[in-house]
Design goal:
Six copies of one chain form a homohexamer. Helices cover 42% and strands 21% of the residues of chain A. Chains A and F meet through helix 5, strand 5 and helix 7 of A and helix 5, strand 5 and helix 7 of F.
């Protein structure tokens, strides 16, 4: 039979999902490690563009840990982490912002724009643009308890948390057909920059936009149980339990905690998806199978 | 490999077409015979809905010859054709309008609405609604010469041709997210109804909306050459030549002539597509292969 | 004296009414029997157009009982009524829709458009267009008790009641200056058509648009008392009493019940007006005398 | 027969005119003498309101000669005229403006507002508001030759002519549903006031708004021929001829000249109507008979 | 040093105030006596224009007592005051309106327009325009008790108070970039004019627009204490106390009472400013020093 | 005398300029060297904010030469210049973009946002955001001839020139009240970044927005004549002559050439202003004296 007809059928299988998500907001957080392999990068960019064309309001948030460390080293600054959090003095912060807002952000913007067309363009922003991400220094005790770690003795420096998201600029860009790409840099009262965990930035933005979905693209399969098997669906209660029991641990903790905060903030569903699979975003959104772990709102 | 990923790749293959056609107008003319088999009908309806969701402004025009004849017979009126054109006295015209605007039109509207979602609804119109299709009686000599037949001696009755399309109503429905479904009934100066060939109605509407594509869904493969082989691409010149030579003949003549008028009126491309293949509209629009015959503007 | 000056004075007598009703919604229900005599039809159409020009948002709802029966008979189907309600099997429903949406509806639309001008056009819709009238099968017990009759033993078939009016399409047509003309056909979950009493359709639409007036154009003088004298003004209480006592009976019951539902739904006034008097709509709206029976909201 | 039905028929006779003039601009100039008798004043105000309700954009311009002279006399200033033009020194100008903008203008505004309803209000303006009427001192030679009189030897003072109409304010008031009522006071470069002939002000405003009609309400029957018979219709050529021959003379000259300038400026029709007949505006606009004299564009 | 740089620094000192008041509404009431000296008048007009250009929505309300009395005298009418309130019979009211709406109002409008530019124009209105200030006759007992005086035995005539401000017209003018200049004349049910204290008019308008500031420009320094020293800041309580104690007295009472009513009506701050100092409005709004007396909302 | 009154007078002196420039576009290019001294930086930021508040649409373009060289050196890359143009290989380009878009751009954005208020925020963009600055590699011969230097033998690498400015994004930000701050990085067909001279970027943007003024803030007094005296006003002809004669030379050449291109592109005036004087932008715009050199359009 005509292979084109099979393709048409596959397109049609996406119709119920397109209908459901038309006009909704999706926040997609992409980790630095996913942005390295060229064909994964392109697959990601095309997925974002396709989501936009079928009427979904996509906002991209990115991280950039590995790249920051590499540049710091070239600068002769030794990257230091305190309980998983980068110690961020003023000089480090300057490098963090240069790499995030000046390198990775523009790189993703240019990548998406290679696949988009007239009037559908990515625009890169840091939290300092339009005072998008009003931030303050983290409360060390609260923050480390949230991510399940003992607070370090030393000061972490300019590590911040989002106080308020100024959604006006994002909303007006979405209404203009643009795809906002946001670097996780916050702005304090005096205009100073803060280094913020990108998972929490994505979560704050998703909450303040009452997003339909918050999708974390990671370099793991998803959340796993004690025996290392992927858990496809997780309730809020179960997620908290698994963190307490230490089954969810290390880098997965902030993602799950950020996801739970998003659900509390009104986001409908949170997905932790394997970014190493090409087009995993499309698979998650437009097919029945799903991929990775989804965390659901209490009902 | 994960079959979902294959599906995602198929979706991505549609991206260049979605990008190209986003915001453009497509006029799709569907013949009465295509609307009979249930799974073809549904496939057609879903295709129209999908086009709308990816940002294409779809207008549907339908015919209804076979159904009209059936109802006429139940009424005890013998359908009569003069050189392929239905002789339309006043009583026949009343049946024509009842069947087209009251039965087939609402049937297609309901079918599309079964697959559409919130704010994307089909709305059925006849050319008398909002004086959409201002019409007059055909000039017999001109009309039959246009479709390559000797004019019949007898009067054809209330057979009309489009004088002017009132695009305001169509445009405002498209801007409101609706899918207009139009029955080929025109309205004269005094409000009287005219029976108009649906191919020419589709062509007039496509011209006045400066459509990107005019697609005829028929019950044939497309335009064929002398030896019966499908011609995938036809220029205007070639099309005229084939009509003159009688290679294009019978029911295909009005379609091709209507298509040529559309190209002259500013439509970018005309497609004659086999409606008996499920999802042939999607195949034509979103895959490289194409299907049936396309007629191109002179360049 | 100059007769033109007398005419000008008559125009001025309408000013207080025009001022009062400017920008308000009127729903006018016109019965099938009123649409038969040519000069009454024209007078009605001109009245509707005049209302629109002085800034009143008119919505027309029509019935079509006699015409449906005539066509059914030509089809060789014997019309059957159960306690005044047409037994509507699938074949009958198809004829009902053809006659209502394809014949009567377009006939009224064309008639109004003969007297209207640029940008003020009638547009015909059935309840299936834009899922305008979401309907379900009537609950036999409830429905017949409402119209004061014993429920028939037999199934009435596809007889429906309005569940919800999708006002978006009506409102956007009114804002565009159009006059919506609506056929009383509802649409079920699966897209199937339902035959609905036009009086109740008019009432549902009037309620959901919070209309100022709901006007029933009938072929009687209005509601009469025991001795056959016209009752010019009726309160809700009095109306219910007269139904209970059987003074209001037969075809007048659904009108009065529909009118009472409209008043409960927020409509300001309901009028039952004699459609056999030319321009009775204008007389009712623009003169002090009034005509027929008005039913008032409880105060 | 029911007299209400006769009234309805009279209303319907207005329909073709309402349809024709819906959305068009009418400029009505009312002379001071017409504003004196109470029932004429009220009839005028109601006519203006009715025109607005049926969708006509009415602009009122008024004069005020007699009232100005009366107030000047109470001030102990003797009114002086040079070839029919009020000699306007600074003190006189102050009185002119007080009477026109502060007394007559507000009087007409309040009168109209007595008969208008919600959202349809009169708003009074002088040419100094919003720099509505940019003016300069008349060029004596040009001006008096235009009105067919020898220029006086003496300086006329602050008598001006319209240089430019700032239509923005008028248009935005019309779009807001207001009825602008304009006093014939112009504003010079330095903000100084000019006394301008109200007929010429009405003509300038009508031209700059491309009005459909300019109506002069006067205290005469209209333009008369040599034998004193009313001339119902006048062409531009004929009008100029009658002025040259002195058949049109005195106060009628500026009206006819202003009317001719309006026709040249793009106004469709000019009417000189007897304001002493109640509702003469309505008679002129909405009946076949017409009243007074109409001057037509050359065709 | 470069004096231009000093000027730039002064401009910069205004920035915090401009930022704070951008988009807010200011109502400025200017007394008749301030409008007399030419350089003060010009300074005032320029200040109003500057406020508008930096994004403040200014509304001007004016009085006109002295001018009215002068004109009355020329008319041979002896101005009479009852407990400080002008006895206003019908003839007096006509003069009041002529002077306020026709002379002073247009004078201020022209003055402002001399300094404004394209699209930023003053437009003069009386309370009768657009039924802006719906008024009724004052309740003598209530009114005089409010201004702390024994009610006179005699009838005061057409002295009114504001019942309702029709803000639609003001708001639409402000949105169009205009500066409304309002004469304190109210309109009664029947369209009759009322003479209203301009301080109370300014207060009513400020309340209904929820103004940021209400500024009274007077011919005194501000509110003074028992020893005649200026009081820079006054709370509501203190103000009431000083009135009770008779420290605030005569013409200052209505201003302070009107100011207190404005604060109750939601206005943020009330200023009583010395109009005899050039540019006192700018000094008050844009410098730290302030000028005159400010009355603050209870907190 | 009251010093506040003097301040008010200074504010008033700005009124004619504010009136003239209200709603116009200004493009301000700020050089890297100006951004170093803290009080100059702040003065600049406040000036930009003040311009925005008085209704001027400001767009900021910045350079960053010295900062780029410093970072390159820390990276161990020796900055190289060919005829004044930075040799930009891929690694250098990455650093250029990081410094421009990630460091300097966000720094300026945060600085401006410290002095701006609600709804008036700076937003930083690089030419890759929204494909704002479509660029291609410079044509070496053309480019160096334009800046009056012999083309170097060696390839300059990724040095680009603007092909097209996508004004949509800039215009929609300006309409939203934002202040766009643009880094001089262009985007090629494939999404690759180009290093573009900031003076030419500012000129291209000013041309495509038909700016009123293009202001270059430099670290010199302005254009000087042979004897080193400042030239306050320069015509296009004179400017070209001085370049040819070598009086204008070195870093001033690109500025003057870029300025001349802007004038040809429809910009009204070009200013070269000494950024070492605090508030020099305000001085230039709002005082009579002016500062630096202005280049005027041929008349």
């Amino acid at each position: 039979m005509n292979p084109s007809i099979d393709k048409a059928k596959v397109l049609q299988e996406a119709l119920p999902y397109i209908r459901e998500f038309h006009g909704k907001v999706f926040v997609v957080k992409i980790g630095g490690s996913v942005m390295i392999e060229e064909n994964l990068r392109e697959a990601f960019a095309k997925d974002v563009v396709l989501l936009r064309y079928v009427g979904i309001n996509v906002v991209v948030v990115h991280g950039g840990g590995p790249q920051i460390s590499r540049v710091l080293e070239r600068f002769g600054i030794r990257p230091r982490f305190l309980a998983g959090v980068r110690k961020t003095d003023e000089e480090t912060m300057q490098v963090v912002e240069m790499v995030l807002s000046g390198d990775i952000n523009k790189d993703i913007v240019a990548l998406i724009n290679r696949f988009s067309g007239e009037n559908i363009y990515a625009v890169g922003l840091s939290g300092r643009d339009g005072r998008l991400l009003k931030a303050r220094k983290i409360d060390k005790k609260v923050y480390f308890s949230k991510i399940g770690l003992p607070p370090p003795g030393e000061d972490v420096g300019l590590v911040g948390e989002v106080e308020e998201v100024n959604t006006d600029l994002i909303v007006s860009l979405l209404e203009g057909g643009y795809i906002p790409v946001i670097a996780p840099v916050g702005v304090g009262e005096e205009g100073e920059a803060y280094n913020i965990n990108a998972d929490f930035v994505a979560s704050s933005i998703a909450s303040s936009l009452k997003a339909e979905k918050l999708i974390f693209l990671t370099d793991t399969e998803g959340v796993k149980d004690l025996r290392g098997r992927l858990i496809p669906t997780l309730t809020e209660e179960k997620a908290r339990e698994l963190i307490k029991e230490g089954v969810i641990r290390e880098g997965m903790v902030p993602k799950v905690v950020a996801g739970l905060e998003a659900l509390e903030g009104g986001v409908r569903k949170v997905h932790i998806v394997d970014g190493r699979i090409p087009h995993s975003v499309l698979v998650e959104v437009f097919t029945e199978e799903g991929i990775g772990t989804e965390i659901l709102q209490r009902t």
